[in-house]
Amino acid sequence: MGSKEREIKSPEVQLGENNSDSGKRGSKKLGIYFIESDSRRTPLGRGYSAGVGGATPVNIHGKPIRDMSKTGGWIAALFIFGNEMAERMAYFGLSVNMVAFMFYVMHRPFSSSANAVNYFLGISQASSVLGGFIADAYLGRYWTIAIFTTIYLAGLTGITLLATMKVFVPNQEGCDQIALLLGNCEPAKSWQMTYLYTVLYVTGFGAAGIRPCVSSFGADQFDERSRNYRSHLDRFFNFFYLSVTVGAIVAFTAVVYIQIKHGWGAAFGSLAIAMGLSNMFFFAGTPLYRHRLPGGSPLTRVAQVLVAAFRKRNVSFQSSEFVGLYELPGKRSAIKGSNKIAHTDDFRCLDKAALQLKEDDGTNPWRLCTVTQVEEVKILLKLIPIPSCTIMINVILTEFLTLSVQQAYTLNTHMGHLKLPVTCMPVFPGLSIFLLLSLYYSVFVPISRRITGNPHGASQLQRVGIGLAVSILSAAWAGVFERYRRTYAIQHEYEASFLTPMPDLSAYWLLIQYCLIGIAEVFCIVGLLEFLYEEAPDAMRSIGSAYAAVAGGLGCFAASILNTIVKSVTRGKGERRESWLSQNINTGRFDYFYWLLTIMSLINFAAFLYAANRYQYRAKDEIQTNGLESDHTNTNASDPIRTPKLSVFGGE
């Protein structure tokens, strides 16, 4: 087909023959032309699948789905919920049990065991971007989940063998609690620790591949053209996090019970069995799933934009060689699995990647990129501040997982005649999440709808903001209660007995901070997941979802680094002065540490308000052109491209 070109004027500046601004293409609103040509290859030199364009759902064979009513929807989502529930059960089961396993069985010091598990959790979450990249670039979300969930199962099986076979653990004879505290137990051999870290990180690698894909793959099951799409999507992410919560509750109760009654091998084995059953359940739903075509390597497209923009860094938009900003004709973009994205005025230096000069023929993507490709990079950059502001809530979650348990050891955990194991205490945030999600649509949405006028109760960023605000209250209350608990322990002569529970002080005072952080997690994380899925480019949604996991991983790392700094700074020169995070919680100052978290959270919240008020939601209708069809016939050159912008806190 011969090349044909057409100019579509930007809405900001209507350029006509007598327009005095016709020479001001470098003005603030970039009065540019879009040049659309058929003589353009995709960024990876590939064409389109026959009959498939934009973000059209396909079946597992990559073919268009003829009858959408037989695929996707809530039934398909249920199979995905099951997989996520088991994955979270394994994740939290390892996080709550592995520190104790390394201390009691592998005879590692408690502090190094906690740091090792924190680093494992951090690397597992931070490396989720790898799973998102593989899904968006090559395999698609289904096959990425299928492969990495199998790797996950292999890692859990290896951990079960470790806990079951005596050859993998050091000698346990004569190793009672006193010997453990004094460090007199036989340490694990180097090869035993190597095996433990190997199977542990194989498990983490499997989790990293699954985590960014499951929520996006579940959201893919709903038709974007449906009138109820936004409502379905909103409910999906709430139910998705409900499945996460159910997995966590099972891990903090049933798995802990199995470990106490039947040992470590049975506990880790139950996680492997649950993961195996969920894999079978996930594969059983294969005929029902809707898929999105992978759009090719996102890193390659990002690199092409950066290289092309750098090559033309010295070219002015007022240059006589400037023809326009380049885009493919019709509704299809150059990126498989993606709609076109309207041009925006952010990061104008990147627009030079799409700046077409007279010498450009549109065949070298390392010199000339489409507007959509440039906008993908802009979107990825614009998204970064929001998940970055959620790192702090992940720091608090990580600290609560260990510090609150240390508090619970000094408190009475009896509930009537029932004594609750200390390791079960983290179940209460899960229960508060479960309760809140159950009441979300019947209580929160109607009330907040009257306040905000938003049909969903609150916009995505409003929910993230609510979560961050409640997390501040949680950290502040933890500081208040810890000050009371420490004073009580000193007054009643428990200062040296930090492992002895105080019978008259109930551990259930911790429920307040647990419930508050649970509420914060619901609003912040669920809102963030929905925000990232909606705002990420069509062909980069797994990477967008990975942003949330990366923030979680960075939160784990930040918590470990913060602990190290606080211990170093607050430990006095004299041998008798304890650090804030002393192993003896009664002589340490955990209350000061909680208030430090409160102050850091307040600063973080202010940064979030600034970032959120500057953010503008993407226009969901993408590029809208009057009469623009694939054959480009009878199109007036003055048809505008609309680039609507939406306020952040006012609605979506």
TrEMBL record:
<comment type="similarity">
    <text>Belongs to the major facilitator superfamily. Proton-dependent oligopeptide transporter (POT/PTR) (TC 2.A.17) family.</text>
</comment>
<dbReference type="GO" id="GO:0022857">
    <property type="term" value="F:transmembrane transporter activity"/>
</dbReference>
<dbReference type="InterPro" id="IPR036259">
    <property type="entry name" value="MFS_trans_sf"/>
</dbReference>
<feature type="transmembrane region" description="Helical">
    <location>
        <begin position="592"/>
        <end position="612"/>
    </location>
</feature>
<feature type="transmembrane region" description="Helical">
    <location>
        <begin position="89"/>
        <end position="110"/>
    </location>
</feature>
<keyword id="KW-0472">Membrane</keyword>
<feature type="transmembrane region" description="Helical">
    <location>
        <begin position="383"/>
        <end position="405"/>
    </location>
</feature>
<feature type="transmembrane region" description="Helical">
    <location>
        <begin position="235"/>
        <end position="258"/>
    </location>
</feature>
<feature type="compositionally biased region" description="Basic and acidic residues">
    <location>
        <begin position="1"/>
        <end position="10"/>
    </location>
</feature>
<feature type="transmembrane region" description="Helical">
    <location>
        <begin position="464"/>
        <end position="481"/>
    </location>
</feature>
<feature type="transmembrane region" description="Helical">
    <location>
        <begin position="142"/>
        <end position="163"/>
    </location>
</feature>
<feature type="region of interest" description="Disordered">
    <location>
        <begin position="1"/>
        <end position="27"/>
    </location>
</feature>
<feature type="transmembrane region" description="Helical">
    <location>
        <begin position="545"/>
        <end position="566"/>
    </location>
</feature>
<feature type="compositionally biased region" description="Polar residues">
    <location>
        <begin position="628"/>
        <end position="638"/>
    </location>
</feature>
<dbReference type="GO" id="GO:0006857">
    <property type="term" value="P:oligopeptide transport"/>
</dbReference>
<feature type="region of interest" description="Disordered">
    <location>
        <begin position="628"/>
        <end position="652"/>
    </location>
</feature>
<feature type="transmembrane region" description="Helical">
    <location>
        <begin position="425"/>
        <end position="443"/>
    </location>
</feature>
<dbReference type="GO" id="GO:0016020">
    <property type="term" value="C:membrane"/>
</dbReference>
<protein>
    <submittedName>
        <fullName>Protein nrt1 ptr family 6.1</fullName>
    </submittedName>
</protein>
<dbReference type="InterPro" id="IPR018456">
    <property type="entry name" value="PTR2_symporter_CS"/>
</dbReference>
<feature type="transmembrane region" description="Helical">
    <location>
        <begin position="195"/>
        <end position="214"/>
    </location>
</feature>
<keyword id="KW-0812">Transmembrane</keyword>
<keyword id="KW-1133">Transmembrane helix</keyword>
<feature type="transmembrane region" description="Helical">
    <location>
        <begin position="116"/>
        <end position="135"/>
    </location>
</feature>
<dbReference type="InterPro" id="IPR000109">
    <property type="entry name" value="POT_fam"/>
</dbReference>
<feature type="transmembrane region" description="Helical">
    <location>
        <begin position="264"/>
        <end position="284"/>
    </location>
</feature>
<comment type="similarity">
    <text>Belongs to the major facilitator superfamily. Phosphate:H(+) symporter (TC 2.A.1.9) family.</text>
</comment>
<feature type="transmembrane region" description="Helical">
    <location>
        <begin position="507"/>
        <end position="533"/>
    </location>
</feature>
<dbReference type="Pfam" id="PF00854">
    <property type="entry name" value="PTR2"/>
</dbReference>
